[in-house]
Write a structure and sequence with these properties.
CATH superfamily: NAD(P)-binding Rossmann-like Domain
Strand content: 15-25%
Helix content: 40-55%
Order of helices and strands: EHEHEHEHEHEEHHEHE
Number of domains: 1
Low-confidence stretches: none
Largest sheet: 7 strands, parallel
Shape: globular
Bound molecules: NADP nicotinamide-adenine-dinucleotide phosphate
CATH class: Alpha Beta
Strand order of the largest sheet: 3-2-1-4-5-6-9
Number of helices: 8
Length: 253
């Protein structure tokens, strides 16, 4: 049976789900979170029937502070010894200029990408501090390093994740806790479908004419980061498709 424990927020799709499958094969029992309960149950069934892995599911909306607290605090004591926290749940909602973008989209992105990450970390990091051990991985983005037009608030949330990660790294260093930011360029997941509210054609345009990263590429990076020797901390990683050289520069054929 697997020995370590990883908690992955947003494990019903994309990077989070792919990371769950990879970690299940690499000595991790898993706590998986998300809003879509049936998807969580399917992932648990697939993992437990294929790998030596135990899975706990927590079904909550990360935007809601009370739900996050209640769910995480309900974990059985032995599941609170979390070795790796992967703050992955996040989204881009819409694409529009600051003078006309939808303010509900802004609130959704800020509440999910920034506040949700903080709520989760605020509950779990004290457990790590108590054990003087742990590793927190925050999913930032190329949008956390550059800004692009019509993405002011998404870029703002990911810049916030980058800054929060840097401060966390310093704060948690004396407790022996590792902290890493992973910043991908374009990854083909449900991300663009969510951004364009289910418009498949618009979502497909994002990845047209080049080979985007796949969720597996990021999952493999996460596995690399968490399997470094005890004295090594990977602070910050930017990972791009070969045909994307900035937030806006693509070589499409
Ligand atoms: P995805 O396929 O859309 O998956 C997003 C995950 O986040 C889903 O499991 C979703 O679960 C969860 N989530 C979203 N809102 C939530 C909420 N309010 N409460 C709980 N869970 C929530 O997207 P992805 O590409 O894998 O994105 C994962 C992370 O990578 C995000 O932080 C994203 O910003 C970042 N990222 C993605 C890209 C890219 O190009 N794809 C690039 C750079 C960074 P439910 O809907 O079931 O709740």
């Amino acid at each position: 049976m697997n020995q370590k424990i990883a908690l992955i927020t947003g494990a019903t799709a994309g990077i989070g789900r792919e990371t769950a499958f990879l970690l299940a094969q690499n000595n991790y029992n898993l706590i998986l979170t998300g809003r879509r309960k049936e998807r969580l149950e399917l992932v648990k069934m697939q993992l437990e029937s294929n790998y030596n892995c135990k899975v706990q599911l927590l079904n909550f909306d990360i935007k809601k502070r009370k739900e996050v607290e209640t769910a995480l605090l309900s974990l059985p004591e032995e599941w609170k010894a979390i070795d790796v926290l992967i703050n992955n749940a996040g989204l881009a909602a819409g694409l529009g200029p600051v003078n006309s973008a939808d303010m509900d989209d802004w609130e959704n992105m800020i509440d999910t990408n920034v506040k949700g990450l903080l709520y989760t970390t605020r509950i779990i990091s004290p457990w790590m501090v108590e054990r003087q051990s742990g590793h927190i991985i925050n999913l930032s983005s190329i949008a956390g390093k550059e800004a692009y037009p019509n993405g002011s608030v998404y870029c703002g949330t990911k810049h916030a994740v980058a800054a929060i990660t840097k401060a966390m790294r310093i704060e948690l260093m004396p407790s022996g806790i590792k902290v890493t930011a992973i910043a991908p360029g374009a990854v083909e997941t449900e991300f663009s479908l969510v951004r364009f509210r289910g418009d498949q054609e618009k979502a497909a345009q994002v990845y047209k004419g080049f080979t985007p990263l796949q969720a597996k590429d990021i999952a493999e990076t996460i596995l690399f980061v968490i399997t470094r020797p005890a004295h090594v901390n990977i602070d910050d990683l930017l990972i791009m498709p070969i045909n994307q050289a900035s937030a806006r520069d693509f070589n499409r054929v």
